[in-house]
Design brief:
The protein is mainly α. It has helices at residues 18-26, 31-54, 56-69, 74-77. The chain has one domain (18-77). It is elongated.
């Protein structure tokens, strides 16, 4: 995941389990960068899930059309059977 390094940062308060933060410090991990990467990954995942939910009906209709009619221009794209 590519995190924008030049974007403005805003201080926030987070509650993180003590054992997790202790292990991160022991491994010399930057807790802010790790938290930002985790939040960015969660945002990306939530957007993907929302897109799939919002487009489920269209995806289903498209797949049904493919199952019924096959690929358009199949003869131009794939070798003949």
């Amino acid at each position: 995941m590519n995190i924008e390094t030049t974007a403005r940062r805003r201080p926030v308060n987070l509650s993180i389990r003590e054992d997790v933060i202790a292990e991160a410090k022991a491994l010399s991990l930057n807790a802010s960068q790790a938290a930002e990467a985790g939040i960015a990954a969660a945002v990306k995942r939530a957007k993907e899930e929302a897109w799939l939910r919002d487009n489920a009906e269209s995806i289903k209709a498209h797949n049904e059309r493919l199952a019924r009619d096959g690929l358009l221009l199949r003869s131009h794209w794939l070798p003949r059977d």
